[in-house]
């Protein structure tokens, strides 16, 4: 079973600059947390501190409510495991790489053999046991890293962009296996990712960092659909960030007059100057003569169609620039061609407002 983690008042400065300032972070037992944020936001530093690899200048870490004393932290350290982007394998066989941590701990040979074989099997690399670890593919090497971490039966697993260098199918398969293992073992896990699409699949909660501070925590859907800042919205793939003026009408939908004169309805109850956030996948594009939706319908023309990760990014001119996502089948139907007139619709609930 996992450990609960609490961090209070963490501060780290390097090169005369504060690079981490986390006032409060609480991670429940068995929860899986994703850390996101732009380059240099402090994600790796936070992982290092939570994993007790680096002592903060000030502040405290609590595991299961007990404050960490860095001089007596060995027994806690033994309950943690870290997996990095680079597999960092030793120049020996796969089996020995997975066994090394257990041997260090003086675990009897038959137990080592049993546990290593179990985790090689779970991670589907039993057939690689006798292979030199340095000659593995990236995906195989990362499976070995995970086996090496899980074999120690940690209560917290930290992962710093473990799958960043892998191709999409390998990454997808490993994500699915990691998800199942974490659910089965109940281990607490904290992972860093640049790929926000991984979050709803793997994370219970997400912490978004910017400039060394946590700017928002919440469920993955909240972070992706209702980010707290325009910077975070852009970071999590909200391509439509539309400045405007919101008007609250009693308990009715909020009307937003966007720059350029178009008015749309939004789901967030905020008045005044706002930025309306609309995820590209929320926009439905139909042929120009399609039956009109009752609200939030914008007529426009297709400007560009650009392939994007198995889908197509469709740039529209609807009196204001809009970006939508379309599938290959939509493209085959023929209405999505540069220059064609189309109708873009989206539900008010999909429009999130951030005060400007
Ligand atoms: N030893 C150091 N001396 C000076 N600055 C440092 C040092 N280590 C890290 N930093 C700075 O601290 C900030 C946070 O670094 P960190 O590696 O934690 O960010 P990150 O969010 O993990 O970034 P990335 O996504 O690029 O991996 C960066 O601006 C980095 O340059």
TrEMBL record:
One Pfam family named in its UniProt record: ABC_tran
Domain ABC transporter: 5-236
Protein name per Swiss-Prot or TrEMBL: Fe(3+) ions import ATP-binding protein FbpC
Species the sequence originates in: Neomoorella glycerini
GO cellular component: ATP-binding cassette (ABC) transporter complex
UniProt KW keywords: ATP-binding, Nucleotide-binding, Transport
InterPro entries: AAA+_ATPase, ABC_SmlMolc_Importer, ABC_transporter-like_ATP-bd, ABC_transporter-like_CS, Mo/tungstate-bd_C_term_dom, P-loop_NTPase, Transp-assoc_OB_typ2
Entry keyword annotation includes ATP-binding: yes
Gene3D superfamilies: 2.40.50.100, P-loop containing nucleotide triphosphate hydrolases
A GO MF term: ATP binding
Coiled coil segments of this chain: none
């Amino acid at each position: 079973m996992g450990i609960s983690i609490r961090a209070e008042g963490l501060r780290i400065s390097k090169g005369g600059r504060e690079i981490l300032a986390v006032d409060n972070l609480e991670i429940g037992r068995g929860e899986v947390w994703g850390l996101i944020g732009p380059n240099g936001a402090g994600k790796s530093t936070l992982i290092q501190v939570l994993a007790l690899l680096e002592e903060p200048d000030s502040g405290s870490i609590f595991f299961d409510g007990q404050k960490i004393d860095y001089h007596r932290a060995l027994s806690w350290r033994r309950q943690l495991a870290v997996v990095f982007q680079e597999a960092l394998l030793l120049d020996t066989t796969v089996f020995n790489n997975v066994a090394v941590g257990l041997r260090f701990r003086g675990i009897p040979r038959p137990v080592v053999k049993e546990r290593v074989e179990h985790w090689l099997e779970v991670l589907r690399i039993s057939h690689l046991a006798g292979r030199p670890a340095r000659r593995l593919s990236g995906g195989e090497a990362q499976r070995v890293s995970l086996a090496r971490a899980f074999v120690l039966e940690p209560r917290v697993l930290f992962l710093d962009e473990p799958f960043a260098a892998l191709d999409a199918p390998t990454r997808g398969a490993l994500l699915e296996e990691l998800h199942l293992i974490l659910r089965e073992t109940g281990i607490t896990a904290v992972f860093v990712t640049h790929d926000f699409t991984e979050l709803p699949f793997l994370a219970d909660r997400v912490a978004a960092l910017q400039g060394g501070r946590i700017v928002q925590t919440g469920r993955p859907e909240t972070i992706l659909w209702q980010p707290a800042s325009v910077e975070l919205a852009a970071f999590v793939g909200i391509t439509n960030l539309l400045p405007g003026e919101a008007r609250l009408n009693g308990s009715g939908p909020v009307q937003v007059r966007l720059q350029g004169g178009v008015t749309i309805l939004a789901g967030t109850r905020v008045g005044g100057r706002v930025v309306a956030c609309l995820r590209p996948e929320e926009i439905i594009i139909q042929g120009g003569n399609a039956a009109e939706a009752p609200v939030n319908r914008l007529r426009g023309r297709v400007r560009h169609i650009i392939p994007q990760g198995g889908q197509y990014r469709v740039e529209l001119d609807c009196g204001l620039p809009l970006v939508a996502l379309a599938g290959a089948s939509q493209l085959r139907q023929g209405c999505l061609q540069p220059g064609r007139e189309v109708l873009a619709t989206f539900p008010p609930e999909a429009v999130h407002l951030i005060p400007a």
